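Friendly challenge for the regulars: who can give me the structure tokens for this chain first? No prize, just bragging rights.
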Amino acid sequence: MSGARLRGALLWTALLLLAHLAALVPLARQTPITVDEPVLFGGGRVILNEGWDDPYTRFQGPLPLYANQLFARDRSLSELGQDTIAHGRYGLLVFAVLGGLVLALWAREAFGPAAQILVLCAWAPQPLLLGYGALLAVDVAYTACLLLALYLLWRWMCRPSAPRLVLAGASFGVACATKYLALLCAPIVALAVLLRLARLQDGAGETLRKRGARALLALGAYALCALLALHAAYGFRPGCAPRDAEVYRSATVRTWIERPIAGHALALLPRPFLEGVDYQFFVSRDEHQVYLRGRYAVGHPSYYLAALATKTPETVAALLLAAVACALARRRSGCPVDANARRALWLAGATIGFALLYLSLFNRVQVGIRYVLPLVPLACFLGASAVRGELRRGPALASALLLLVGTAESLSRWPHLLSYFNRSSGGPAAGWRWFQDSNIDWAENQQRGPQLLAERHGSSFQILGAGDGPRFGRVAIHAFQLGARDPRDASRAYTWLALFEPIDHVGAAWLLFQVERERFERAARESSDPRRLRDYAAALTGAGQLEEAKIVLGELRGQLDLADVAAFSHLVFQVEDRASLPTRERALLDAQSWAQLGRLDRVQEILDAPELGGLPEVKREVILALVGQGRRREAIERLEQSEDLHADELCVVLLFHLYSEVARFADAVRWIEPRLSSLSPALREQVERKLVEQRELRDVSERYHRLR
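First reply, four minutes later:
Bragging rights claimed.
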């Protein structure tokens, strides 16, 4: 390559890396605090102040925790607001740049300068990498360090030598020191080392036994370097993990630590590292119901494929298709395939394939695309193999087009890049139809969504919660409330709003719907599910259009549940009979009927009447209505004040769960412990399992507050 071309490639690389960094800085300032960030920030502070004897230090590897203190070391934990978290985020931006730099170097060495520019043009505007890169989370750090480990392993595969093996092994230890999930690549690493040494030409004439011994020796050296790097990340202070199985809680670690060879190997790991892995296995032991495309199951084999298909821009898929087409064209034309390029493609492809296979089939925890975030830049890398050699006019134009389209796509979703969905999937407004987890909202939009909608539309909409039933007009709702279970089939979701498309949205979290009577009726009649007409009748009833409701209900004769029949009969067909009932009896029947139709706002109006407020059954209805609307703190306050409900088993367990949901872990433990014996055996067993988790969270929270 000429000097001018080399300088040009270096200049474009630097500009693209700087552009990515320039986009991350305002995102780090603007993005509201997500769920995990305060915990991770607290973990970094605990490590610096007190070492490793705290649960805060075990959630993930230490390197991102160190980094989040770089620019926030002088900030008090008592000021853990947006500004403090933003300064913590700045410390992790280096990992985002590192990921891009590694991609550029790897693509250049494997495929040439044209691929170097192409991969950066695909990587730099990636919405997910920008969104997660701006957070005080471990995912982009893990992505960058895993890319570094794969790149250095590939360099060793190209020309095996002791120094390269040391660097490759150490980089894998560094990757494990960011996120425990990096261990998932260990089988790929082992296979790559063994296969490469088995094919070395200078080993010709060696017996199979000697080749195997040499391969195992290299693998052992790689593992030793990784182990030393991992201990170095912990400062060599905590020491090795104990072999006592009683120290650990997960069945997986307990089983392996007691085995002769595996147990000795695990005991070489840093103590907080193995304790953290044990913690992750322990908290994921229960079966988690995962939502995907309207269905609930204990894991969906297609979950991560769906996440990648919906949350990465179409440009990545186009780039991959172009790479496949170019590879086929080269094969047909008989062009020789460079061995090093082939190794790079194998290593990246094997990593993607194995990660997807394991996480899809053998992993119960499916809570967001962040678990497979490294696959996004790896896909860009595979796509960059479409071009080879020098940066000529064609590849340059393709790179410019890729950068332009990618930048426009990210700007169109700015600043809600965490909840990005591509246009083919329906965009963020349709995200709730795909997922009900951090792909939608990681709590960054949970609080400010209604405020942003109000700034655009005034106060002309009603905010709905879980359980709020059909009505006409303009309504706003959080996407998580749209994943309610179908009462007839718990494996499915059912919501009356599925008939409509949002007219506005805040990211993928908050959605604004315009529910018009004509549209509702047309969609309900076109549906094959008779419950859609029932929902339409409920909306008519709530609007006071009783004659129209009677007509629709007449069409549903014999298709309604008994509870619906009772509710509609009372509210629609027995208007005169209602008037003759005593006030209290009528109000209670009204409340029960409106609750059946999901009109918790009407329930609240009735049950807040002073003459009804003293009845225990009324208090209970009010509390359940508040919980259904997502107003947990108000429900807690009423439960705490209603001493006559403290003997009610449902209310006892409900308050325990409400305390845990609002992170009042000490209150949850203090409330439930003296009441455990009064619960039914089946319920007590469920509560006791959750109580173990609450006690640990209480201890972590108390230690955190002592630090503050």
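The chain is about 60% helix and 5% strand. The longest helix spans residues 3-30. Your move, everyone else.
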